# Entry
Amino acid sequence: MNINRFFIGLGISCALVFTTACDDIIDVEPAYQKDKATLFKNLDEFEYALTGAYANFRQTGYYGNGSQTTGAFSVLPDMMGNNVVETNEELGNFISQTDWIYAADDNDISVTWQAAYYIINQANQVLNNNIEQFNSTDQKRVNRLRGQALAIRGFVHFDLLRYWGVEYNRNSTALGIPYRTSTDHEEKPTRLSVKESYDKILADLKEAETLLADVDKAVNTASNRSYIDLLTTKAMLARVSLYAKDYAAAEAYATAVIEARPLASKTAFPEIWKDGSVSEVIWSVAYSAGQGNPANSLYAAANNRNGYRPSTAVEALYDQANDIRFPAYFASISRSGTSRRVVNKYLGRGTAKDNLVNWKVLRTGEMYLIRAEARAMQGGKEVLALADLNTLRAARINNYVPAILAGQDLLAAIATERQKELFAEGHQWFDMKRTTRTVNRTDCGSASQCSLAPGSRAWAWPIPQGEIIANANIRNQQTPGY
Amino acid sequence: MRKFVLIVFAIGLCLAQHAMAQSRTISGKVTDQDNGQALPGVSVVLKGTTTGASTNADGTYSINIPTNQSGGTLVFRFIGMLAQEVSIGSGNVINVALKTDTKQLSEVVVTGYTTQNKRDITGSITTVKAAEVSQVPLASFDQALQGKAPGVLIQAQSGQPGAPAAVTIRGKGSIVGNNSPLYIVDGVQISAGDFSTLNPADFATFSVLKDASATSIYGSRGANGVIVITTKRGASGKTRINYNVQHGFSKAPANKLEVMNTEQKLDYELANGNPYDWTDEDLARLRNVNTNWEDVFFRTGKTTNHTLSASGGTDKTVYYLSGSMFEQTGTVENTGLERYTGRANIESSAGNFNFGLNSTFGYSEFTNTSENNSTISTPLNAIRWTNPYETPYDEDGNYTEIVSGQPNALQELLENRYLRQQLKGVGSIYVSYAVPFIEGLTLKTNWGGDFTANETNNYIDPTTATGRAQTGRSGSLTRAYSRGFRYTGTTSASYTRDFGTDHRLTVALFNEIVKNKGNNFGYTGYGLGGAFDNEAGITPGTTDNGFIPAVNGNGSVSALVSYFTDIQYGFKDRYFLSIGARRDGSSRFGADRRYANFGSVGLSWIVTDEAFMAALRDNIFNELKLKISYGSAGNQALDSDFAPRELFARSVYNGVSGLAQTQLANPFLQWERRTTLNAGFELATLQGRLRATAEAYNSITSDLFLNRQLSRTSGYSFLNSNVGELRNRGIEMSLDGDLIKTADFTWSANVSLTYNQNEVTKLVGEDKEIENGIYINRVGEPMNSIYLVRYAGVNPDNGDPQFLTKDGEITSVYDPNDRVIVGSIEAPFFGGFGTSLNYKGLEVSTFFSFVRGNEIYNNDRSNIENPQYLWDNLATSMLTEWRKKGDITQIPRPDAAWYNDATTRMVESGDFLRLRNVNISYALPQTLVSKLHVESIKVFAQGQNLKTWTNFAGFDPEISTGMLTGAQYPALRTVTFGLNVGF
# Structure
């Protein structure tokens, strides 16, 4: 009938008039992000991805500071030790860490866990998108990109091991960390043993060492040390070897770095902390305006808020008149007419007071301390160890008279020097975990907990609740005690 | 197109030949009996045949009657009017005046593309009269709908002038997707939650579409319900001018979360170790100060509203024009809204063409302050946190520096400026064509857009704490511009025809395109503090001054395309069937998952029109309609327009731009689908004086968007996947009755009630629960259930906090494994009720709304029950802190190991009852008014949110997110006085 014909006609007309146009209308493309399908077609795009991996180091769960979660690998290790002390100006945002009362549902721990793997995932983007296809045409450039990505992957896994590893011995079968080498988000990895974790960390770092020895162009410049080059990789290997108690390797790698990059002069040293000098800096993570900062949870210079002040005990360790580190690290700044001691190390660049500075991850001072400790622990090298200690002190202390120490005294002196030299640089908690597994806070401030015993579960962080829920393979591998 | 015209033309020829039989012509005019105005669009049908016509814009019609039918009857039918039958006599002219149908089922309901008589509707639609909304002194109309419609939960969230409410229709159907309904104004989709630049006084009708049958024509966006608004139309005849003015005052409501006064706080500090080491001298000085920080921040807000409108027109063209000015200062210093709107609605007809334009244009200036967070620079938090022995100013009138290290909040509020200027235009044009050679066929195309531009101007003064925290430590100026444009184009062909006396069929085919585009850019400049507080005050950045400005820009785009049909069939004018079917494509899903089909079917039956009900019709059931519907609707409202794709975004390191992965690939992401079964009845009894509707529904969201947990070693917590299932089932009812009705006096009352039960029925694979902070989604429980360790008060022996284990035993050890579900943030039971008295021209009405059964996590209280924060002000409850053995209290000893607020200690009931609105109005008698040479004068006074009954410890329990994070900007208590004059 007519009506039927009419509707058929109308249907055809809709199809004719609209179909092509209408279906095109939903074909829209993102203009402000890139779809993966369009990426990794040339080495420039791998270069972009590597830049992204570096940028991810600034996350608040990693080096960046935030109001709820703060730099787990920048300021937090000192806040968890006894170098700095919580004050009344702090609002208790970090006490679950700094008073060691965390459980598996602790949010900050979960943020740090994920932030670290987020960097690793980005490094794996460089490694896993068939960059090998350019091997034949651009081998050295591929080496430069892959070398950095592998070093990032190895180093971040090592940082994870520092918090989550149940212990640090090279061949320990205790629980270590999951090691991620793919970008498959469905993967549900298990925790490796500490030994297996070290195996993979060292393999990545050593491959990076090989690759970065043969690159198309220099990774860093004379005035900028923001990227991981061959020297940085060796410094990373020195640190990892010390934790693993592979003292020979630690000594060798530290020596390689020291020879290439000597200690800063006394005039250059204070400038390191204002980014006025890259003297003895091996690798620092670059911060620019608007990208946060790595240290304002200690002393927020912008609004003069002193959340964690230096402890009186740590200040007492220095030769305050002669040690150039003392004025570079500590100062008195008043608020409402009341003077307070503050951590002066990260105020800002030049005269700025905004905590905007690069985060110094590795520098030569640490290399001397690694070598001194490695030599003192090896036996037969105490004289060399003492020489390293004296060289470092002489570089930092005016009118320094070399000390003569041996045995336990020497080791204790190296440990104390480590505390003084690397104050607020993200080492203390791990150094304590590595050695005494004891925290005593003689100057306890607002903290509710003033000491931590070696047997505490807190020495190794719990696997976050979210990971336990999502990953059946890790469910039975919770850190002991949680 | 050419082919289409050919086909239509061919069919047209066929039909035209049909009509060439022998006949005579009857013509006439149809008018409205009430006012004598012409009625266009009235259907005129020769009873028992398919022969029919409809009236033109001037109300005239003409119809050809076959000679053999000369003794027949003409039926005149129009929505909202009683049908009238007239026998054809000898004359060739039949004029008819139709009477308004006052029965409930004769109400006209706007369903979006069409208007329908309420008796025909098979779905669930509630209408709210525009008059109930237009006079409420709130800039955002959604707030005024609270409690008015069953099934619709509206929570204010904030009292900031212009703030939108959270609107939920029949329970949240999506866990991670958007739950906001679709808003349609004159056929054009407008952005949800952004209404304050529209003038509610321009609105004529609100229809809330709730089930699948009702929302079927919006199926791709209708899963959360649809709110359809039409704006006022002109009426032909004399030009009518109306002026409405309102003035009013607002105050902050009473506060139930008390903080300590100076005496209490100082004594508390002394009892807890005198942390500031106050000397006796200090104490003597401080005890003389007692600042109530509520008084410092709150003031009396003022509201002024003027609306002037004109409407009129000729037989062919009608118009409605309006202009308005709305000014509201908030109850918090330095907050407010100024709004200016204009509207022009014009409709015209020429022959078989009808065309029209609906357009509005508005400009608003919002001055806002941050709220509901726990940031120290948020000024309102000072009401809780700043010590009472502090003052905002010193003796010299300078801002003080707060001893505890907190910013001076008044300085933050007054010196920083957060200004947003919004330009909004919503408009649509349509052309419809009544195909002359096919009776009942109408072609229509309607195109409209919603344009919104926001310009932000945030000045951060260098002297404030926020200003010192800016890059370069010297304030900042942020200027930003964002622009969003969405167009909706709907093209349809609709055919309506009566077959015989008993059958009426409407079939409509639609094509619709919706495209959404947004872009923004902005900059933040630093180094303010010179001579200017505007762009001229920015110090250009150099390598060493630290003032390098930040610039940004972003944009997105999404689109929808739909083909659908809507079929309505009526039999004997008492059995109705409606069918909707559609196919939708969305740009938001993966290439293979873009298209989905939805459909619905609905039935209704006017029981009282049956012969066997005749006996009851005049006594018990004046009207009774039963209805049932079943169908599905879709949801594609995800946060990201490009959710299925693996995306890389710009990432900058060491001054070099790169790319970082920001989103995982998700190619299987597809439409969320909500399937609803709805059944109900509509009843009028007691000679129409009592009207009731009740409906029950069961709606299941399948392919539910859910955050499927990923191993965090992927760098991500979850991936949004279509894995779950959620059920909302409930009953809702409304009652509306005239308790007393005489010529001069009416007393009426109304009630609307909703009970909604929300339940998660399926999660990812075998998983039975997904945790998310303090919430959990667990199979068999409502979504967003609060999942915490139960707090068991304080151990009287040692002052330690105690908890309940999972098994209900008291323990002093906090263990996350002891968490249990203690309630949901989703409100199951809510509604409103009101009454109104009308005596001659005087009317008094009141309206209450309530919510029961939801829980709120009060983090605002947690912040001031934390003994760690001894340095700042605390709640008076802290005075009951455990001090000695035997103390029975809820507040542990201050030096207890750990202040753990992740327990039920901070969970409170969200129940409240609120006197939402009281309105007293008086229309001056006609005798008096005519002496003044005006048409009408009405004076009125109203009060908004005058009283709230709740146990919630805060300003306002209307919190849709389930968590009060920090101090909130409370809902305004407003009293206004107004005058309405018609010329």
Remarks:
- Residues 472 and 545 of chain B are 7 Å apart (CA to CA).
